[in-house]
Amino acid sequence: MPKRPKVAEMEIWKELGTVTEETGIRAFKEAKLIDIARIQPSSLQPRKSFDREALRELAESIRERGLLQPIVVRPEGDGFIIIAGHRRYEACKLIGMEHIPSVVREASEHEALEQSLIENVQREDINPVEEAQCYRLLMDEHGYSIRNMAAKVHKSVGYIHGRLELLKHEDLARSVSQSQVGVFEARELAKVEDEEARQKLTERVVAGELDRETLKREVKKLRGKAQQLPLFDVRALSRRWGHLRKDLEALDVEKLADEEREKAHGILEEIKQTAEEMLTRIQ
Fold this sequence. Notes:
Blueprint: E1 18-19, E2 26-27, E3 32-35, E4 39-40, H1 52-65, E5 71-76, E6 79-84, H2 86-94, E7 99-104, H3 109-121, H4 128-142, H5 146-153, H6 157-165, H7 170-177, H8 183-189, H9 195-206, H10 212-227, H11 234-250, H12 258-282
Parallel strand pairs: 4-6, 5-7
Antiparallel strand pairs: 1-2, 3-7, 5-6
Helix pairs in contact: 1-2, 3-4, 4-6, 5-6, 8-10
């Protein structure tokens, strides 16, 4: 797995300042002290949770040594919105700091969100599901392909694809967010399409009944059974239609290239014809 860059080496910090020979600490000529009450986190920020103990440790470190890395903000109205440094901002609030060193950048909401997402996914302590949500937003809102995104954040294509798999089922995403299920286990469980079977298997994982190898065998067994289901299983059909409908509702036709539109049109026509044939047979 590619090594994550250090905080000071992240792309978002480039050209903000230089390292002084005397101290080795990055000095930011653009940084200003801003009243912390005038700064707000972005409402579009996908990262919603922080490890409270780790946040307290960061706060104590800032109390003892000061904030060595300013946050990055953009002006909005009479205040500022955070682009990068949400966690440091929360830590500074914890210890009652009234002013916080900040670099002010002129950026649109769209540009700020992109920078914030990239900064988030390069951090060690980000929740895997929130990391996946960042990737999804970068793809949906900023037009990144998985390959381009992998190059941007120094990850492998397989790694990013694996993270995106965590969003495939809401129940699994919730279990990972709550640290009940690990990433490996969630990726295996995501292979089970039957919701009821998947939830029962998840409960066994949470209870500690299955190690990785046993889980893989159980998943393989369930997938084998799914392939042996009768052609017309009403419950299975209903569940599959639910997933398909959700995907179709999320489809933004305006973002599709001409070739992709043509392909999507053909697939939908095929679905329509098949459905009409089945309705005729049922009648």
